């Protein structure tokens, strides 16, 4: 369960604190898959950054399961993020000098032997249909295939929270739709909570729940500052 209570975030712009986000009360059940929609600048990415612990709220509470994210120190938030959050970005952030397989295995548990890590990663490459391409460099595969590898990297540790910020923003529609459907399917099979920011209403419609950030963010509704 994710719980947000009276969460506020503002940014300093030209010496002034501009309120960006105010979420009075919000809950997400474990395993829910939610698409976030909203105009540019409405606070969608800011919300993901707060949930991943990259940013701290000015005030309010953010609970992920039994962890009070708002109370953690920076190093505790780094640990929380490494263990519990899988992030998928619009740009895939794969290391260009490493193969897809090396990119994935780089972040796998140090407690796993090389043999175990190779077995687990092979299963994931098969699951996303990339077995043939796994030994190639990112530049030697398509953008859709790069994003599938980035998806494995985000999901392989079975994080309690998967955050995807415009994950299909740089893909053509057909590739985007197939990537989104794979992401939804895997998160459902693994029981992972998925929050995806997208501008695409058709892709958002494939999610069991859609949230318009304007409905969540009291500042956008003009009822608060
Ligand atoms: N680090 C920052 N410093 C100052 N202002 C910021 C910072 N991060 C975000 N903002 C401002 O906060 C507002 C919300 O930004 P955010 O990136 O959350 O919007 P968004 O809904 O994700 O937009 P988009 O759909 O364009 O990505 C914007 O006005 C942005 O300029």
TrEMBL record:
InterPro entries: AAA+_ATPase, ABC_transporter-like_ATP-bd, MacB-like_ATP-bd, P-loop_NTPase. Residues 2-225 form the ABC transporter domain. One of its GO terms (molecular function) is ATP hydrolysis activity. Keywords: ATP-binding, Nucleotide-binding, Transport. The keyword Magnesium does not apply. It comes from the Bacteria. SUPFAM superfamilies: P-loop containing nucleoside triphosphate hydrolases. It holds the Pfam family ABC_tran. Belongs to the ABC transporter superfamily. PANTHER family: ABC TRANSPORTER ATP-BINDING PROTEIN MG467-RELATED, LIPOPROTEIN-RELEASING SYSTEM ATP-BINDING PROTEIN LOLD. This is ABC transporter ATP-binding protein. It comes from Paenibacillus whitsoniae.
């Amino acid at each position: 369960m994710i719980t947000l209570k009276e969460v506020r975030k503002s940014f300093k712009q030209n010496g002034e604190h501009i309120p960006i986000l105010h979420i009075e009360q919000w809950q997400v059940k474990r395993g829910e898959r939610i698409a976030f929609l909203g105009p540019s600048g409405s606070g969608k990415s800011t919300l993901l950054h707060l949930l991943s612990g990259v940013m701290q709220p000015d005030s309010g509470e953010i609970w992920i399961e039994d962890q009070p994210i708002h109370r953690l120190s920076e190093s505790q938030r780094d640990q929380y993020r490494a263990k519990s959050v899988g992030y998928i970005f619009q740009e895939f952030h794969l290391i260009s000098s490493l193969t897809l397989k090396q990119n994935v295995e780089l972040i796998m548990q140090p407690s796993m032997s090389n043999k175990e890590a190779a077995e687990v990663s092979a299963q994931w490459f098969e699951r996303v249909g990339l077995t043939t391409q796994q030994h190639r460099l990112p530049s030697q595969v398509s953008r859709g295939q790069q994003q599938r590898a980035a998806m494995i990297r985000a999901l392989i540790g079975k994080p309690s929270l998967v955050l995807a910020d415009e994950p299909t923003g740089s893909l053509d529609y057909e590739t985007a739709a197939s990537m989104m459907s794979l992401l939804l399917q895997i998160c459902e099979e693994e029981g992972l909570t998925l929050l995806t920011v997208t501008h695409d209403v058709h892709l958002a419609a494939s999610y069991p729940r859609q949230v318009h950030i304007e409905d969540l963010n009291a500042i956008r509704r003009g009822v608060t500052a």
